[in-house]
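Usage

Read records sequentially. Each one opens with the input sequence:
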Amino acid sequence: MNFADNVATSTMENRKLSRDLLINKYIPYVKHIAYRIGSNIPTNIIEVDDLISAGIVGLIQAADNYDSARNIQFITYAAFRIKGAVLSELRAQDFLSRSVRKKIRDLNNAYDSLEKKLCREVDDEEVADELGIDLEEFYNIKKMAGFSFISFEDIGLVSYKDKENVVKSITNNNKDVFNLIKFKEIFSATSEAVEELQDKEKLVISLYYQDELTMKEIGKVLDLTESRVSQLHSQAIYRLRRKLKKKGMLDN
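and closes with the structure output:
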């Protein structure tokens, strides 16, 4: 083996070592993300271990494709891949049964009907009365509706090429990302919708998505039970999706 071959072999070994070190270093972060997302989903629906496995796949993909020459930290690049992989696993499970989907459609229809009739936003008790159910069942349906994450398809990105362009733009720290498809409008509309949330809902959204606390940790901060925090989170997500749909930001 000549000198050039020795250098090439050494370079490849160093890259593999760097890749393995990155993966081992950030596996705890994968578990953190999986538990944060999984904590809001009943254990009989999906196992957290499945979410962890999906997240690790996202981490490996990030380690394989990361270019240190780019002006972006690995954790920023990997976080997008990990979260995307975990959410994709959840959506792939398609865990909402036909009967639950019907209840969610009935819930949406009840909101639309009452808001059209009363010309204002309606409260939980009014919608529950319209559906003829008690508040406990109402909140259970609303919680299931909150599991429906905003996906690429929801905002009109259907082809693999469209999705890859968005991923590359975001992970390359490209400011032009908001010129792709509806992203600029989605970003603006979401910001406005968050500002319209009730104070506690807004705070839960901030602590969960910005500070990346778990439901249990948020409960300690706000002196609320974990189930109440979960309820507030589900209500906030449901409100956000409805507001974005009304503005034509999400496909039906």
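Summary fields computed downstream for this record:
- The domain at 98-246 is CATH 1.20.140 (Butyryl-CoA Dehydrogenase, subunit A; domain 3).
- The two ends are 62 Å apart (CA to CA).
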